[in-house]
Amino acid sequence: MSRRLAQLFHGRPRLQAGALLAGPVGWLVVGYLGSLALLLLAALWSVNPVSGELVKGLSFENFETLFDEPVYRTIVGRTVAIAALVTLTDALLAFPIAFYMAKVASRRTRAALVVAVLIPLWSSYLVKVLSWRNMLSGGGLIDWLLEPLGLHGPGYGNTAVWLVMSYLWLPYMILPIFAGLERIPDSLISASEDLGGRPFTTFRRVILPLAFPAVVAGSIFTFALTLGDYITPKLVSNNQFIGNVVFNNISTNLPFAAALALVPIVVMIGYLLVARKLGAFEHI
Amino acid sequence: MRTHQANPARTAWLIVGGLLAAMAVLAGCGSSGSSSGGEELQKLGKGEGQLNLISWAGYVEDEWVKPFEEKTGCKVNNKTAGTSDEMVSLMRSGEYDGVSASGNATARLFEGGDVSPVNVSLVPNYKTVFADLKGQPYNTFEGKPYGIPHGRGANLLMWNGDSVKPAPRSWNVTMDPKVAAKYKGKISQYDDPMSIAEAAVYLKAHDAKLGIEDPYELNEEQFQAAVQLLTEQRPLVGEYWSEAEKQISSFASGDSLVGTTWQYQYFLLKEEGKPVAASPASQGFLPEEGATGWSDTWMISSSAAHPNCMYMWMNWIIEPKANAEVAEYFGEAPAQELACEHTKNPNFCAEYHAEEPAFWKRVYYWKTPLADCGNGETDCKNYNDWVQAWTSIKG
User: Fold this and answer.
1) Which of B58, B62, B117, B222 could connect to B330 by a Cys-Cys bridge, CB 3.0–4.6 Å?
2) Within 10 A of B166 (CB to CB), how many other CB atoms are there?
3) Which residues of B touch A240 (CB under 8 A)?
4) Which residues pair with B54 in a beta bridge?
5) SS3 of A86, please?
6) What is the mean pLDDT of residues B220-237?
7) pLDDT over threshold 70, residue B176
C-alpha cells in the first residue's frame, strides 16, 4: 500500500504539493470562506415578524433598512471615525517608543521594554476595560488627578471609548513598527548624516519612508480591532457601535445582523486595498 | 522569490465562483416550513435519565438540583442564557427539553411551534400556585396552559436617598424631560426594547387621549409617542444597563442616582449600606403609574427527548421548599403559595410582596409585542419594530 502510494507521488511535484496543502486549504475554504459565504447568504434572508422564524428567501430588505434608517449611518460613521482616531493616536504614540526600542536603547533596556509592551497582553481584556471603567467613573482616579487643575475627567462616552481602545491596542502598533525599524540598517542613518542630512531630514526622507509599511501594517490591527469591538463601548459609553447592533439583533433578526456584519468587512477590504497601495505587504 | 505566480485575478474569480456555487446549494436546502406545536403528555411514565434545560442564571443550582436528581434519576444538563432572545434561538435548536421563559419570549416560542401545552393534572404542585399567575396571556395560548409559573418580579424605581429629594412618587423623574433634566447624566435606564413599555406605562397614566390599554400592544400613534418620550430622555441618561452588576457599580459609586431596577439590585445595594431607596409601602411599593415586571414560566419543548423528566422537573421547581430556595437565591417572588413557609429569611415573602395580589395588579408583566393587538385590531407594532426603535432611540 505505502509502496504504491510512494509510486503514485514519485516524480509528480504538483500532486505532492496538492496532497500536502489539501488540509489547510480545505480548512480555509470551508471554515473561513464558507462561513463568510453563509454570512452573505443569511443577509439576504428575512424573519417572520410574528414567530421570528427565519424565512429563507431572497430579499434585499435588510440592506434597504441599512441604507434608509439614518441611525445606522450614524453608527457606522461613529465606529469608523473612532477606529481611525484610535489608529492615528496609536501610531503617534507607538512610533517614538518603537524608535527608542529599535535604535537607541541598549540590549538590556530593549529586552525590558519588549517585555513591558507584551505584559498587558497577558491580562484579561475584561479586567483592563473594567479597570478603565473604574478610573473613568465620577470621582474616580482620573477625576481625582485632574481636580487640582480645576478639570473634570471625560466621564463615559466617545472620549472614554477612544482612550480605552487606544490603550488596549497600543502593543499591536508598537510591535510591527519596532520590527520594521529594526530592519533599517544603522549604516543608512550614518550615510544620511555623512551626506549632510539633519536629524529631521534623515527622519523624513530615510526612516519614515522605510518604516511606513510597518506603520500601515500596525494600523490594520488597530483599525480592525476597534471596528469589531462591542464590549468596550458597552462598558464605558452609552453609544452603539456596529458590533453592538449586530449583537442586539443576532437572536431576534439574524439576517439583519448578518447584513450589518458585512459593513465592517467592506470597510476592511477598502482599507486593505489602500494599505496595499501604500506598500504594507511588500515585505511579507 | 516567487517566480511562478498564479494570476491573482483568476484566483479571485475562482473563489467568487466557488462561493456563489456554495450559496446556491445552501439556498436549495432552505425554506423549511414551521413545525406545529406538540401534543400534551397524557400519562407520566418513567424518567428518561436525562434532562436538558435552558434557564436564567440562578434558576438551576445544586442546592435544589441535586435532590431532584437523586429523587428522579434524571441527570440535569443546564445551559444558562443571558437574554430572552437567546433563549428563543436556543429552543429552536430542538436539543432542549425545557426553558424558563420570560413573558417576552413565550408568545414567540408558541408561534414558532417550539413548545407544547402542559397537562397540569400531571403537575400536582400546580394547584397551589398563586391564582393570579395562572391563565395569563403570556403563559396561556388558545385556552391551554403552556407552562408552569416559576416566579415573578417588578421593575422598581430606585433612587439615591441622599441626593434625590423629595422622594419621587412617579416615573416622571426619569420619563418627563422637564423633571428628569434635574438628574441629567445620572439616570439609569434598562437597556432593552422592553423600556418602550415602561414609557407606555407612564403615558397610559398621563396622556389619556392616546388611549393606551396594554403597554405591550401599541399602535403606530401610541408607539411613536413612547419612542418620542425615550428619545427626549436619551441625552439625560447616564447609563443604559443590561447586566445587574453594571448598575450596582454605578449606583454604588454615585454615577447613577435614579432609574429602573430589579428587586435584586435594590436589596443587594441596601445590604451593602448604600443610600438607595424605592417606593414605600404607603404608595404600594410602586410609583403611582404602576410598573413593568416579569413572570417566568417553565415551558416544555415540542421536540423534548425527555418529556417525563421535564414534567418531574416542572413539578419539582414549584415544590414549596425548592421554589423557596430558587426565589431566595435569585431574588424574586415565588410562584408557589406554600413556599413562603420555607424561606430562610422569614420576611422574604413580605419583602418581595409575594402574597399581595394588590401589588401585582399594578405590574404589567413583560410579553412579546405582536401585530395582533388583542382587541380585534392588527395594526400594533411587533417585536422587530421594538428592537429597531430601541436602536434608533439610543442612536
Assistant:
1) B58
2) 5
3) 391, 394-395
4) B79, B99
5) helix
6) 95
7) yes
